[in-house]
Amino acid sequence: MTSNAVDVCVVGSGASGSIVAHEVARHGFQVLVLEAGQELPAGASLKSVQRGFGNALVRSPSGTLTPRGRPWTVSALGGGMTLYAGIAFRCRTVDFDARAHVAADALDPVWPFDYGELRPYYEELERRIGIARLAGADPLEPPSDPGLLPPHEYSLQGTLIANAGGRLGWLPFPTPLAINSVPYRGQAACDRCGPCNEHLCPSGARADARSPFTERSLPRGALTIASGSKAVHIGLGSVSRVASVEWLDTVIQQRARVRARCVVLAGNAIQSAALLLRSAQPTAPRGIGNCTGMVGRGICFKISGYVSGTIMADRLPSHPPGGPFSTVAMTDHYLDADAPSGLGGLLYEASPAERAVSGRKLKLRVHFLAADQPMRSNAVRLSNRRDRLGLQKIILEYRTHPLDKSRLDYLSHRASDLLTEAGAKKISYTASNYQFGSGHLHGGCRAGTDPKESVVDRWGRVHDIDNLYVADGGFFPYPGGVNPTFTIQANALRIARRIVTQLA
Question: Of residues 94 and 504, which shows the higher confidence score?
Fold first, then answer.
């Protein structure tokens, strides 16, 4: 087993890992990124590559464990941002303290800081990558600087959905997107080639977590990327300090170890919790950071679903074809006194890949989503079964809270109202199967001030370990009701700045 030494070992190369690795490396520290996946081939789609990601075990209705769980968004260099839709909301102010809206049996949903502390990191990232948005159009948008890029034009589907929302008295607005509406910082504008969700962006207009790894201004040799390198165990040098990370080459299945002054977990909420549990050793018999049994608990996936319908082509306005996956959104039912608990969620256009009129019919689809309750019983655990690498398989214990079922039903009806107003026929509901994991992963290494109820502190540092941090969505004590990527990135930049001061 080989061994070398770096200043920081970052586990994962996606939304959070790329931010942390770049920020630390640009200050001259030596960084190694361990990425379990490989670089995606040109033209890749989620459908073409997801079979190779591996699965997790989840409970069937009868209670038996079945391999239907999805413990990855995307297992590849760049993580989920390689194939995401570019939707770039900021968490709402209420998302940082939702105590008035969660059930009595939920874990504490309060973040250890408020939106104001995270705002400067949102602003800095927006300047770096560009966000196409219309500032002030979202009635629930938290305070922000003026937008840098104009919003994307509504697609044909988006126009019909927005018009219907307006007739209902709602306030539709352009979906904020990390997709260039005009050329920005050397990157092309979107050419409206089609819905980009679950596909690589061929034009380079969409923000990509891989771009920090090609930054030419980084100090020479400061950043090393090891693809196909699965972190399998964290070794402690003392009861309160990490000394090394053991990793496995997924191709030749040879193990190696790297010594590090600091380790940052950025694999995703499920993978980071599993790695801590997998790292049980004499000084941490239940897994690292798990002395109070909180590692893996409070896992959240965001409750969600889709409503679809068709309208007749003879009612369609003239409109240019194509456009991003989502161009219009509505937050009218996010804070909603009529919603169960007073907190509803987000609705937005989620156009199918095939957008053209077919047989004089056009399909409309709306995605609705909301934050789920952080429950102690919803947890990441390890099975005695082994995967193809010889590692314990992950178990996702998750049940939707009754309050969340009611909120999901409420949002489904609001989405149906929207499509009915748009003139859609044969309106149908499609489950997102969020309960199996995949896209929106939060919690499991939740942040808080009380070590008995959380895993990391306000800076993402594991409570009882001086040099081990969690920077991915596992940090979230409450998931918020919007797409999480932009918040994960902003918080990762905040954590990275803290790590730099600790290393100096």
Answer: 94
Grouping H, G, I as helix, E, B as strand and the rest as coil, residue 468 is strand
> Nearest-CA neighbor of 236 among 391, 34, 466?
466
Side-chain-side CA neighbours of residue 378 (13 Å): 29
- The catalytic residues are 440
CATH of domain 1-86+89-130+207-295+377-398+443-504: 3.50.50.60
pLDDT tens for 345-396 read: 999 999 887 777 776 788 999 999 999 999 999 999 999 999 999 999 999 9
**What is this structure's pTM?**
0.97
Round to whole Å and give the CA distance between 14 and 401.
30
Q: What is the pLDDT averaged over residues 263-272?
A: 98
Give me the pLDDT at residue 3, please.
63
Find where tokens 């947890």 sit: 379
Q: Which H, E and C letters describe 387-440, residue by residue?
A: CCCCCEEEEEECCCCHHHHHHHHHHHHHHHHHHHHCCCEEEEEEECCHHHECCC
Distance CA 77, CA 228 (A): 9
Minimal CA–CA distance to 83: which of 50, 127, 122, 36? 50
* pLDDT above 70: residue 5: yes
Taking the CA of residue 224 as centre, how many other CA atoms within 13 Å lie in the half-sphere pointing to its CB? 15
CA 380 to chain centroid, in Å, comes to 17
Contact between 479 and 440 under an 8 Å Cβ cutoff? The reply is: yes
Rounded mean pLDDT of 159-178? 97
Question: What average pLDDT does range 293-307 have in this prediction?
Answer: 97
DSSP assignment letter at 309 = E
> How would you class 62 by CB atoms within 10 Å of its CB: exposed for 0-12, middle for 13-18, buried for 19 or more?
exposed
pLDDT band per the 50, 70, 90 thresholds, residue 2: low
* Domain ranges within the chain, ordered by starting residue: 1-86+89-130+207-295+377-398+443-504, 135-200+303-370+400-436
